[in-house]
Design goal:
This protein is an alpha+beta fold. It is built from six helices and seven strands; from the N terminus they run βαααβββαβαββα.
Length: about 180
């Protein structure tokens, strides 16, 4: 197993779109069988996601950040988040996505991505952080709980049919993640 020193974390730009898409599709296919419909996972397209990433990264607004974790053989994870401009959902900032390929899990990459995301968002003025995770994703829930996240809400997950929920986690003081 590789260690954290075998990876570099950096801001992602439009040129990283294909690598981000590859990680996104592969991570979903590794993570969500039995949770999301298999047909939806099978239909996921790296090309379609690369276009979305390129579009989003080209038009990123102030306070939005996407970080990529890269190893010797390419990207192994990414995290995207933003400062929330007064929407009052329970925190000043949100991590929208954090995915690490199975081969790089338990190496410290996920922890490093979350901490780096928190540092950047803190520098943008955020004092608290939240994220949502599919409630049936026990592996991710355990990770966020070990990182000090406090579950504070459960909401219906839209777009996948009936019965799926997401658990919201919050760090009331974002500096807990920046140390």
């Amino acid at each position: 197993m590789e260690g954290l020193l075998d990876y570099a974390i950096a801001p992602a730009g439009p040129g990283d779109a294909a690598e981000l898409a590859r990680v996104h599709v592969r991570a979903w296919r590794e993570t969500y069988p039995g949770i999301l419909p298999q047909a939806a996972l099978n239909r996921m397209s790296v090309a379609v996601h690369a276009r979305r990433f390129r579009h989003d990264l080209t038009r990123a607004e102030p306070g939005q950040v996407t970080l990529i974790a890269e190893g010797e053989d390419g990207a192994v994870g990414y995290a995207a988040g933003a400062v929330l401009r007064g929407d009052g959902r329970g925190a000043d900032a949100e991590v929208f996505t954090l995915y690490v390929l199975r081969e790089a899990q338990r190496s410290g990459v996920g922890r490093a991505l979350l901490k780096a995301q928190a540092r950047v968002l803190r520098a943008e003025g955020a004092k608290s952080l939240m994220l949502f995770v599919l409630s049936r994703n026990e592996h991710a829930r355990g990770f966020y709980e070990r990182m000090g996240g406090e579950a504070f809400a459960e909401v219906a997950s839209h777009g996948w049919g009936e019965g799926l929920t997401e658990t919201a986690y919050r760090w009331s003081d974002i500096t807990a993640l920046t140390r």
